[in-house]
Amino acid sequence: MPASKSPKRVFGIDIGGSGIKGAPVDVGSGALLADRVRIKTPQPSTPTAVTGVIADLIDTFEWKGPIGCAFPAVVQHGVVQSAANVDSSWVGSDAAKLIRKATGEKVHLVNDADAAGVAEIEHGAGRGVDGVVVMVTLGTGIGTAVFVDGVLVPNTEFGHITIDGKVAEKHAAAKVRRREDLSWSEWGKRVDTYLRRLEDLMWPDLFIVGGGVSKYHEQFFPELTCRTSVVAAELRNSAGIIGAASLAARRLF
Fold first, then answer.
1. In whole angstroms, what is the distance from residue 236 CA to residue 128 CA?
2. Cα atoms in the Cβ-side hemisphere of radius 13 Å centred on 140
């Protein structure tokens, strides 16, 4: 599906620890213009392997045009600065340049939680909310995105705070629930401990809980006792794709 010359149509990609998802996006409405495609993240998830999958994903849609890419790491000016849930060989690489070389298209790279948060602020559960909003994505790890009156504070890494000597995402990520075979209630209590720690540090006006697990929020939200309002993300697994496309539209044109 070829792109028009308008920046309102951008291909969004969300790179995760277990899957790489993509679809063309109408950034004005936040709507996907086709069903998203998901390909398993290669293991090991090296730059060569991942960029190869991205090129295949783009070819699937016959896409020619700008690309927004959500990446599970701190990203500064297209350069990867951390690698919590991807291969460590990414650190220090100009990932935007590598993806541009693999696809032949303009690329804007952004932290994955930031991308999901932007989508929710613009088109989802955070739309029209003033004050401090914290998006928390629960998946292979824990990602966070912080907004002040709708303005993103990029590259926050509050999934790596320690609670009782344990890194939060090693204790309360969605992957941990499956790995340790926890009940929804048991895991929900861990999520609650994490959110209560965050609210003591930040005093947000709203938490948005995202990631694929958000569609099961009724299973674990009853365990949440924090004073801050908590809502489930509305865009779920499409949020990273939509937010990455939206940010690319702003930065590439």
1. 18
2. 17
Domain 9-114+238-251 is of which CATH architecture? 2-Layer Sandwich (3.30)
Q: Which fold has domain 128-234?
A: Nucleotidyltransferase; domain 5 (3.30.420)
On the CB side of 15, CA atoms within 13 Å amount to 33
The string of pLDDT tens digits covering residues 119-151 is 999 999 999 999 999 999 999 899 999 999 999
pTM score over 0.70: yes
Q: How far is CA 202 from the centre of its chain?
A: 20
Burial class (CB in 10 A: 0-12, 13-18, 19+), 204: buried
Q: Where are the CATH 3.30.420.40 domain residues in the chain?
A: 9-114+238-251, 128-234
